[in-house]
Write a structure and sequence with these properties.
The complex is a heterodimer.
Chain A: H1 2-44, H2 63-94, H3 97-112, H4 115-133, H5 142-178, H6 183-194, H7 196-212, H8 215-218, H9 237-244, H10 253-281
Helix pairs in contact in A: 1-10, 2-5, 2-7, 3-5, 4-5, 5-6, 5-7, 7-10, 9-10
Chain B: H1 2-37, H2 42-46, E1 49-50, E2 57-58, H3 61-92, H4 96-110, H5 114-128, H6 135-159, H7 163-171, H8 176-205, H9 208-211, H10 232-242, H11 246-274
Antiparallel strand pairs in B: 1-2
Classes of the chains: A mainly alpha, B mainly alpha.
Chain lengths: 285, 277
């Protein structure tokens, strides 16, 4: 009986510690970014000026970085979505069971590759290609970031869509076959429409992931805090934090501004995730 | 006729997409392995990086040990806390409201960008708590990162345990502690280990959380958890930035990818063995 109580106590203590730490993170980031918001106001972060954290009169406009983060991640989803959904259709509806079982692990394998490896390959292959064939002085650009990020989020989209589509296939295959409906008709008029919600949820999930990605994107976008253009350099919020944090003296406005940038990124991601939650709530599957 | 063409488009689209996806997957893995395998030798695995720029000769031994150390600390901390939390939520938490609050906190951590976690760890662990740039600080940040990953999987697995078995156990007057220890955790052990290993692979590949908190450009293999360490992922980033000779960059990438593949492979195997496949 004593052991019973002790075990329960330990479990409760560990849970409390976990929840306390995790809850503290959000609170901590909010508190650390407060001085920066107090200095320039919320509007001060979204003016049409340049990010200049160390001047005599520091300016913390992160509008270019916010736009760059959105631009790169939307571009990535736009590239990855049609390919990802197509691959999921192939895996769940067209490939034979044996082929599916052989190919599916490669999707998991790709999802497990570290982001710094994607960044490295992106630099070698994508950026290298741009410099060689597009006569760009530097291939590092929003487009390069979008392509590399697209490759990175592709496995997530495939996984989410494939699971749903395989389920739909399984539950309706017999009925469709006995009615003499062709496979193509079934894909077009049953599987795709029924998986619509799941496709959308997968896309939004991938978008949220892309917005928070640091390494792979940072290594191929050039990192200058400019307003993003497709073939120009840019800097995303995670890249900004990663590059400037080491050099910002603790307690300085610059330091607090980087926390504020982190908070804004969290809010952006949260807004996107809320969308997924709304979809899930109304889901039929 | 028109209809048939529409179907043809779907086939072409899906086959083309699959071809692109798998070509990219094979290309990335194959290309790195192919280029890196030439560099890998006993010397590369067992020597420290040397030369200028750093990594132009020598090997990656301290980075391998450092990566394992970061991953070990992260897994130890996260698995203990995550499994406890999952057990609590599944077996002890009786208030629906409390359950939802805890779930919300866990899910919002899962949605936290890893660089923001690094920022948090840098201020709290490195500066305020005085752990310094160390294996401990970096490992703790990675632990926070993989906590939701493990908790969600373990909780799901605990939920799959047969309700009848639990009820029989309770009905026989077996205490909750004994039921959890002897029935629940034993039944789910393989899957718990598999989840922790998968999370370890995830932690090992992460760079952003340890840039500020634990990884350094050069260090000996760490002697204690309070010393700073090299990590393969960060080393790869540094080599690329410094413009080190490509064969060393590919070699480092290959070692990192192989280690992660080995961990993930082991995780999958453990999960499958239990199910007797």
């Amino acid at each position: 009986m004593k052991r019973d109580k002790a075990f329960e106590l330990i479990i409760k203590a560990f849970t409390l510690v976990s929840v306390a730490i995790l809850g503290f993170i959000i609170f901590f980031i909010g508190a650390e970014s407060l001085p920066a918001f107090r200095y320039s106001g919320l509007a001060g972060f979204f003016t049409n000026e340049r990010w200049n954290p160390i001047g005599a009169d520091p300016v913390f406009s992160i509008l270019p970085m916010v736009l760059a983060t959105i631009y790169v991640s939307f571009l990535a989803v736009a590239i990855a979505l049609p390919i990802g959904v197509g691959t999921a259709v192939f895996l769940s509806c067209i490939a034979r069971e044996s082929a599916r079982r052989m190919l599916k692990p490669f999707i998991d394998l790709m999802a497990g590759l570290p982001s710094v490896v994607f960044g490295f390959m992106g630099l070698m292959v994508v950026v290298g290609y741009f410099e060689k064939h597009f006569s760009m002085s530097s291939g590092e650009s929003v487009l390069a970031g979008g392509i590399v990020l697209a490759i990175m989020i592709l496995p997530y989209i495939v996984s989410t869509c494939d699971t749903t589509m395989a389920e739909i296939m399984k539950s309706h295959k017999k009925t469709s076959d006995s009615l003499g409906v062709s496979k193509w008709h079934m894909i077009r008029y049953l599987v795709l429409p029924a998986a619509k919600r799941s496709i959308f949820a997968g896309a939004v999930l991938a978008l949220a992931r892309g917005m928070g990605e640091t390494m792979a994107v940072m290594m191929v976008i050039g990192n200058s805090p400019l307003f993003p253009r497709l073939l120009g350099k840019c800097e995303t919020i995670p890249a900004l934090i990663a590059l400037e944090m080491g050099g910002a003296p603790v307690g300085s406005l610059h330091y607090h501004a980087l926390f504020a940038a982190g908070l804004i990124l969290i809010i952006m991601r949260f807004a996107v995730s809320m969308a997924v939650w709304q979809i899930k709530k109304g889901s039929d599957f | 006729m028109d209809r048939r063409r529409k179907y043809k488009e779907i086939i072409i689209w899906s086959i083309l997409s699959a071809a692109i996806t798998f070509a990219v997957a094979f290309f990335i893995i194959g290309y790195i392995m192919l280029k890196g395998s030439r560099t890998i030798s006993a010397e590369f695995l067992l020597d420290s990086p040397k030369g200028f720029p750093l990594g132009s000769s020598g090997g990656v031994y301290p980075a391998i040990i450092g990566s394992l150390a970061f991953t070990g600390v992260a897994c130890a901390v996260a698995s203990l806390l995550a499994v406890s939390t999952a057990v609590y939520l599944k077996f002890y938490c009786t208030s629906r409201r409390l359950y939802n609050v805890i779930r919300l906190v866990i899910e919002s951590t899962a949605g936290m960008p890893s660089i923001v976690l690094g920022l948090f760890g840098y201020t709290l662990f490195v500066l305020k708590l005085g752990f310094g740039v160390s294996v401990l600080s970096g490992g703790l940040v990675l632990g926070i990162m993989i906590f939701p990953f493990i908790e969600v999987r373990v909780e799901k697995r605990l939920g799959e345990i047969e309700q009848d078995m639990l009820l029989s156990s309770y009905a026989l007057g077996v205490s909750r502690y004994y039921t959890i220890k002897r029935l629940v955790l034993r039944e789910a052990l393989a899957d718990i280990i598999s989840s922790v290993a998968l999370a370890g692979g995830f932690a090992m590949g992460a760079t952003a959380p340890i840039i500020l908190t634990g990884a350094v450009i050069y260090a000996k293999a760490p002697e204690s958890i309070m010393s700073p360490a090299m990590a393969l992922s960060y080393h790869l980033y540094v080599l690329v930035g410094e413009g080190a000779p490509l064969e060393y960059v590919y070699g480092t990438a290959t070692v990192l990818v192989m280690l992660i593949l080995a961990i993930n492979g082991a995780a999958m195997l453990i999960g499958r063995m239990k199910r007797g496949e």
